[in-house]
Design a protein that fits this description.
The protein has 243 residues and is an alpha/beta fold. The chain has a single domain (3-242), classed as Class I glutamine amidotransferase (GATase) domain (Rossmann fold), CATH 3.40.50. Helices cover 29% and strands 31% of the residues. The protein is built from 6 helices and 12 strands. The strands form 2 sheets. The protein has a 6-stranded mixed beta sheet. Strands 5, 6, 7, 8, 9 and 10 form a 6-stranded mixed beta sheet that branches. A hairpin with a 5-residue loop joins strand 5 and strand 6 (109-111). Helix 1 (21-31) crosses helix 5. The radius of gyration is 17 Å and the shape is globular. The chain starts with a strand and ends with a helix. Bound molecules: glutamine.
Length: 243
């Protein structure tokens, strides 16, 4: 039977704005298709479970301080998992810690995994509001991602590193260069909450497909009735455009 295994990193610390809801969406979209779904949490000091998708949510600076050292100690294992085909989704505070490090608003220097080439430093104001971005994870198929952002961190990608998408409305990585998030292979980082996946079901399916590839190859995902999700997406996009 086809199955998907998720590791939720630091569920007690990195779960702001109901980011845990992303896992509920992945579960729903798998179970509707008879894909077995298993989630294992991993807190500081716990052994890192083997998984097809590693998930990190957002968090306040103090929660990021609490887990950054533990996460960095796992960098080698995470890198090996990604090299072995695992996918990663990291949101906001988790996204910041995927890079080389984050200097928080109180001046805390938090180390990052270095899994992706990016750095983040908190600025004097928070970047808050509804956001819409355009992305093209599959070449020739541009899509939009909608949601909500609230971060002090300004993220700058290294030379040649691709953002997840281009900001249509909102701030994105740093409010200046038009990029939002990061994408390298099956590793996605983003500032977008909402949570991210309920209003962006196409992205949830992209992640399910990318995560299944490691052990199951390309799995055709039957379409689901996304009328409600699509309507929520449309409304969120309209609100972001009006904001
Ligand atoms: N603490 C980080 C910041 O303010 C991340 C916030 C978040 O995850 N929403 O930039």
């Amino acid at each position: 039977m086809t199955d998907l295994r998720i590791c939720h990193l630091y569920p007690e610390h990195l779960n702001i704005y109901a980011d845990r809801g992303n896992i509920a969406v992945l579960r729903y979209r798998c179970e509707r298709r008879d894909i077995a779904f298993a989630v294992r949490g991993c807190g500081p000091g716990d052994p890192l479970p083997e998984a097809d998708l590693y998930y990190l949510g957002g968090g306040q600076d103090r929660d990021q301080v609490a887990v950054a050292g533990d996460l960095v100690a796992r960098s080698g294992d995470l890198r090996a998992a990604v090299d072995g085909g695992a996918a990663v989704l990291a949101v906001c505070g988790g996204y910041q810690l995927l890079g080389h490090g984050y200097r928080g608003h109180a001046g805390d220097d938090m180390p990052g995994t270095g899994l992706v080439d990016l750095v983040t430093e908190a600025g004097p104001t928070r970047m808050i509001g509804n956001i819409a971005i355009r992305c093209e994870l599959d070449p020739g198929r541009p899509r939009t991602v909608v949601g909500f952002e609230n971060h002090a961190g300004r993220t700058h990608l290294g030379e040649g590193v691709e953002p997840l998408g281009q900001v249509l409305h909102g701030h994105g990585n740093n409010g200046a260069d038009g990029g939002e998030g990061v994408r390298t292979g099956r590793v996605l980082g983003t500032y977008i909450h909402g949570p991210l996946l309920p209003k962006n079901p196409w992205l949830a399916d992209w992640l399910v497909g990318a995560s299944l590839e490691r052990r199951h190859g390309t799995v055709a995902l039957d379409p689901l009735d996304d009328a409600l999700e699509s309507e929520a997406h449309r409304v969120a996009e309209r609100i972001a455009a009006a904001g």
